[in-house]
Amino acid sequence: MVAGSALLFTSCGPGEDTGDGPKLLKGGVYSGGVFKMNEIEDFRDLNPLNVTEVASQRIANQIYEGLVKFDQADLKVIPCLAEKMERMRMLRSGHFISAKA
Hints:
This protein is of the alpha+beta class. It is 20% helix and 16% strand. It has helices spanning 2-11, 54-63, and strands spanning 23-24, 30-31, 68-70, 77-79, 88-90, 96-98. The strands form 3 sheets. A two-stranded antiparallel sheet has the order 1-2. It has a two-stranded antiparallel sheet with strand order 3-4. Strand 1 and strand 2 form a beta hairpin. The radius of gyration is 24 Å and the shape is extended. The termini are far apart.
């Protein structure tokens, strides 16, 4: 009984820190750690090209960052991962040319 109680109390301890947690990188970005998912449904795939159901879409939106995003104040398109943006014009042939041309 005493041995069982001792095992119970020592197994519920905080454990030792292995140092495998998230690490702060340049630009305030974290790398590593554990991704915890609070979803009722199972997801099929997290490859952005293969996301077809709602559960995967919700998870992918939290993991991946797009080239552009919308400014929430006025819904203008602003660069996200893109370093610069240039307006393009589509010709009737379906080809795109620079708007400056």
